[in-house]
């Protein structure tokens, strides 16, 4: 690899040079959504962060196997493994099959990810499709003496594990404190210790999501799926495991414990975590009336939003912060991103308008483009520093403007190189896309212009001016518009 990528490893708490287990190949696993509700900003950030990593690793030449799971069983209401299953609860309330709930919200999640230009992972395994692998994992942990059965359920023995290994090494939590705090709570029920977590849960009679196992008809604990599926598709020892910082404890801590307790060693080399999103300085939460789904952002249909924000505005906003920094959403901040993105896209359009000159004054030299490219790579190699890449692209926009304003000139080969570097970083690596206008205002104006044209066509038809009417229809069709005449006028769609 030509590029030397440095990433921050949550486990070692420092930046490390990325060295894959197998040269030229990368195995990466990212915790996907629990599909019982619409995707919101909390889903957008990890999806975009690890999309940036996925794109960059591929760009620099790695063959990447990216696994992002769908959690469709086992994620319980309280503390991840107490209370009712989130999907089963939704199914009960809506009188649906749990798999209908999971499928519906998986589809919605995919739609939102497509809109954000997040590439699909290489494999998207479902927890319910890997019950056998999870049962095998539980058996291994039991055989090694780190789990016990209690009333048909199986729990991980955290205290015993911690005597031989280090529980808390990822989150930096001290187990003694966790245990002492937990003991203050009322009762431990079937568990030996409150900190023990479920590997398998015996299903209550009313619980519909259940599978046979050596211990009971039941379902796997939430943490099992990622260990079992990560190992199945990426092997006993793979490169990167990612997710939001909120997953460090208990989810990822438990995953490490499961892998060490089952196979005797860590499964993952680099743990990467994106920071969280707040809204107007507050944590996002259903009770706080600031819980905004992605489709609400795209439509503007939420009382906290003063306008709609295009998917690319959301993507750009997230990329304008380093993934390990917190991000605070506000209408003002999003409007600033909308303007910034428009400025970047304007720079690209201006590039196409430039006529190169062979011997102009104040020529932009090739070493300017080489330097720009080098600085963009340096920023990406420094733990995916997307805000710095964006600032370099803004600098390039200023240079482009000086050429447009005839204050500088550029030769054809330099112009081509500049366009290549700009497009590579903006589109291939940052994953931005050109949109039809950004924000509702421009979108609306655009729609009105099409309506205006079609109104002219309607008038032409009424006057039997077939030449004009056909010309408008054909030229719109060439641009991808499908126009349909109706009883009261017309409708149109843009097929792009
Ligand atoms: Zn996970």
Brief description of this entry?
By secondary structure, this protein is an alpha/beta fold. The chain contains 16 helices and 19 strands.
Q: Can you offer a commentary on this structure?
A:
The protein has 496 residues and is α/β, with parallel strands linked by helices. It has three domains: 20-274, 3-Layer(aba) Sandwich (Rossmann fold), CATH 3.40.50.620; 294-429, Isoleucyl-tRNA Synthetase, Domain 1; 440-494, no CATH class. Helices cover 47% and strands 17% of the residues. It contains 16 helices and 19 strands. The strands form seven sheets. Strands 4-3-11-12 form a four-stranded parallel β-sheet, sandwiched between helices. Strands 7-8-9-10 form a four-stranded antiparallel β-sheet. The chain binds zinc ion. Zinc ion binds at residues 31, 226, 251.
Structure classification: alpha/beta
Shape: globular
Helix content bin: 40-55%
CATH superfamily of the largest domain: HUPs
Radius of gyration: 27 Å
Q: What's the helix and strand layout?
A:
Blueprint: E1 6-9, E2 14-17, E3 25-30, H1 41-59, E4 63-68, E5 76-78, E6 82-85, H2 86-94, H3 98-115, H4 131-143, E7 147-150, E8 153-156, H5 158-164, H6 175-183, E9 197-202, E10 218-220, H7 222-234, E11 238-244, H8 248-263, E12 268-274, E13 277-279, E14 282-283, H9 294-299, H10 311-319, E15 327-329, H11 331-353, E16 363-364, H12 366-381, H13 386-404, E17 409-410, H14 412-429, H15 439-462, H16 466-478, E18 481-486, E19 489-494
Parallel strand pairs: 3-4, 3-11, 11-12, 13-15, 16-17
Antiparallel strand pairs: 1-2, 5-6, 7-8, 8-9, 9-10, 13-14, 18-19
Bound molecules: zinc ion.
Residues 31, 226, 251 line the site of zinc ion.
């Amino acid at each position: 690899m030509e590029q030397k990528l440095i990433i921050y490893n949550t486990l070692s708490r420092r930046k490390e040079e990325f060295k894959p287990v197998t040269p030229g190949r990368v195995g990466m696993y990212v915790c996907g959504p629990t599909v019982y509700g619409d995707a919101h900003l909390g889903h957008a950030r990890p999806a975009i962060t690890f999309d940036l990593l996925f794109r960059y690793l591929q760009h620099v030449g790695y063959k990447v196997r990216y696994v992002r799971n769908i959690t469709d069983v086992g994620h319980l209401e309280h503390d991840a493994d107490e209370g009712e299953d989130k999907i089963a609860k939704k199914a009960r309330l809506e009188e649906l099959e749990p798999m209908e709930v999971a499928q519906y919200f998986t589809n919605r999640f995919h739609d939102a990810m497509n809109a954000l230009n997040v590439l699909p992972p290489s494999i998207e395994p479902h927890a319910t499709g890997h019950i056998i692998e999870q049962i095998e994992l539980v058996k291994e942990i039991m055989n090694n003496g780190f789990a016990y059965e209690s009333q048909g359920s199986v729990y991980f023995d955290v205290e015993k594990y911690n005597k031989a290994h280090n529980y808390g090494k990822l989150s930096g939590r001290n187990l003694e404190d966790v245990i002492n705090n937990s003991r203050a709570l009322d009762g431990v029920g079937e568990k030996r210790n409150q900190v023990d977590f479920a590997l398998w849960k015996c299903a209550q009679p009313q619980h519909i999501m259940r599978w046979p196992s050596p211990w009971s008809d039941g379902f796997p604990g939430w943490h099992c799926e990622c260990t079992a599926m990560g190992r199945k598709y990426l092997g006993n020892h793979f490169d990167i495991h990612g997710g939001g910082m909120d997953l460090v404890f208990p989810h990822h801590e438990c995953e490490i414990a499961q892998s060490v307790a089952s196979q005797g060693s860590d499964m993952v080399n680099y743990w990467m975590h994106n920071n969280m999103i707040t809204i107007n300085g507050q944590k996002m939460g259903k009770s706080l009336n600031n819980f905004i789904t992605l489709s609400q952002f795209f439509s503007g249909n939420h009382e906290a939003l003063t306008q709609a924000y295009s998917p690319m505005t959301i993507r750009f906003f997230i990329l304008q912060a380093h993934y390990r920094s917190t991000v605070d959403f506000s209408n003002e901040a999003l409007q600033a991103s909308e303007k910034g993105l428009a400025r970047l896209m304007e720079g690209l359009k201006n590039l196409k308008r430039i006529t190169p000159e062979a011997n102009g004054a104040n020529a932009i030299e090739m070493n300017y483009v080489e330097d720009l490219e080098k600085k963009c790579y340096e920023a990406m190699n420094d733990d995916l520093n997307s805000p710095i890449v964006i600032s370099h692209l803004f600098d390039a926009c200023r240079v482009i403007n000086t050429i447009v304003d005839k204050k500088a000139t550029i030769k054809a080969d330099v112009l081509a190189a500049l366009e290549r570097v700009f497009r590579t970083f903006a589109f291939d690596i940052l994953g931005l896309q050109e949109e039809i206008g950004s924000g509702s205002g421009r979108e609306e104006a655009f729609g009105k212009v099409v309506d205006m044209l079609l109104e002219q066509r309607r008038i032409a038809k009424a006057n039997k001016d077939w030449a004009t009417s056909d010309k408008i229809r054909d030229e719109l069709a060439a641009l991808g518009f499908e126009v349909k005449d109706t009883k009261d006028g017309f409708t149109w769609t843009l097929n792009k």
